[in-house]
Every structure is written in C-alpha cells, then in structure tokens.
Design goal:
Layout: E1 9-12, H1 14-20, H2 28-39, E2 42-45, H3 48-57, E3 66-68, H4 75-78, E4 90-93, H5 102-108, E5 117-120, H6 124-129, E6 138-142, H7 146-155, E7 158-161, H8 170-177, E8 182-185, H9 190-198, H10 203-212, E9 213-216, H11 220-231, H12 237-241, H13 244-250, H14 253-266
Length: 268
C-alpha cells in the first residue's frame, strides 16, 4: 500500500460525499482524499446510488473497489407491534432541510380532508426557515426517540417520505418494518431499499406490496396522487402486514453485518 502497512476498507456515508462536492480538485484536501481512496482495497457505501455519486467526484478510481453495504434497522423497528387499525394521520420524519422535501408534502396535503399531517424531526423555527407556516391540521412533534418513532410508523395511516435527495433512506426501511403504508419519492437510494424489501417476496406478494407502497416523483402532484391512492385503497391491510416478517429479515443487522464480515474475511 502507498500510505498504509495494512489493508484499508473505507466506508462512505451520504453527508461525507456531499461535503466532498465542495472540494476543489486542486486543493490539498482533495489530493489527500485521493491518496486515501487509491490506497484502499474496498470502498463501501450505504447504496449503489451513493457510490455512483462518489465516482463522479473521483472518476479515475477502479469501480471494482466499490461495494454497496446497505444499512439495517434497529430492533425497535423489527420488533414493533403491528397494527391493523390505523389512525387517520399522515406521518413524516426528517431533518428540516430543503433536500428532505417537506415543502412538497406540505403542499400535497393541503387538500386532504380529515387527515392531519404529523411532522417529526425539527421545531417550529426550523419549519419557518423552510418558508412554511403552521396551519390547521399540521402538528409538529419535534425530535422523537426510536420508541416513539416506531410507534408512529406503526399506528399512522401513511408514512410519507418526500425527499428530493436521499443517499439511502433508512426511514423507508424502518417504516416497512413497522407495517406502514408508504409514499416515497423515486430518488437516490430509496428504490434500492424497496428492492431489498421485495427480494424474497413471490409475485402475488409483490403485487400486494406495490398496492401499499407507492414510489412517486419528487413533485407535489405525484406525492398527492400517491397519498390519494393509499387513502382509497380497498385492499386488506392484513395482507400487507403478513409480508412484514419476510421484510424484516432483509433489514436485520445480523444479515447486513454478515455480508460485511465476509468482506473482512476476504481481505484478512
């Protein structure tokens, strides 16, 4: 190795790659990063999407080094009690930053009748900085514990993830494991999360899954259409909840870490 006397495996996460976008390729920091990545035997990322974005920044690196290492979910979500009887709330949880698309969901739910929008993750001041105003039917929950988050995901009628960008989308995996019907945008790593969830499902089960989990475009009209589709779904929620045990297995940390352990053994 050029810099190290041991084999180096680097793990990338979304915020790290985003920060690298601001680096000048003539900067010392970019040069040091480059030396680090060249010296590695493998580079993992929480999604293939993130690795593709990383490769744009370092296009000369060998793609054979890349390996997606998808995240698992906490036992709080994989052991959450499932509820057949849902309340009428639409729920979302995210950092209050533009890329999370809360403004899109805010506008998409303006015409919802009888469905409150519960928003977790930030306070009213942060909400206002997004150019949004409190209105009737919008309830800000603030930061939630994992127990509180799991309960909301299990009990609310719909979980909406309106992101404009999303390196992985762990909230999607958590919502699936809690048996929540979902509207999520077709961005970043979210399609990968849904593919993992459907991996062990048969064709009939995939049909049920697709009727309760809607992948939509990151715009107001598409998000509203996805929400309306779930609100008017006449299928049995029990059929969807019956899939959850299979889905939970795909997001168990035991399975995720087993894949990473095989990588470590390969280079030990």
């Amino acid at each position: 190795m050029l810099l190290f006397r041991f084999k180096l495996i680097i793990s990338l996460h979304g915020n790290e790659v985003e920060r690298m976008r601001t680096l000048s390729k003539k900067s010392i920091k970019y040069h040091l990063y480059n030396k680090l990545f060249i010296s590695s035997v493998k580079i993992t990322g929480c999604s293939q999407y993130l690795l593709d974005q990383f490769h744009i920044l370092f296009p000369h690196l060998n793609r054979n080094k890349y390996m997606p290492q998808h995240n698992g979910v906490s036992s709080k979500f994989s052991e959450q009690t499932l509820f057949v009887q849902k309340n009428n709330n639409i729920f979302t949880a995210a950092r209050f930053v533009p890329k999370k698309g809360l403004d899109l969901l805010y506008k998409a739910t303006q015409l919802s009748m009888g469905n409150n929008l519960f928003v977790a993750g930030g306070d009213e001041n942060e909400f206002l900085t997004l150019g949004l105003k409190k209105r009737e039917g919008v309830i800000l929950l603030g930061p939630l514990s994992q127990n509180e988050l799991a309960t909301h995901l299990a009990e609310n009628k719909i979980t909406a993830i309106p992101s404009r960008k999303e390196p992985y989308g762990i909230i999607v995996a958590e919502a699936l494991c809690c048996g929540s019907p979902i509207v999520a945008t077709n961005v970043g790593g979210i399609p990968e999360v849904l593919s993992i969830a459907k991996e062990k499902l048969d064709q009939v089960e995939k049909g049920v899954f697709d009727s309760w989990v809607k992948l939509v475009e990151p715009n107001v009209e598409s998000i509203r259409s996805g929400i309306d589709s779930l609100l008017n779904n006449n299928g049995s929620i029990k059929d969807y909840l019956a899939l959850v045990p299979k889905i939970r297995k795909e997001f168990s940390w035991r399975k995720r870490l087993k894949e990473f352990y095989r990588l470590l053994v390969q280079y030990s």
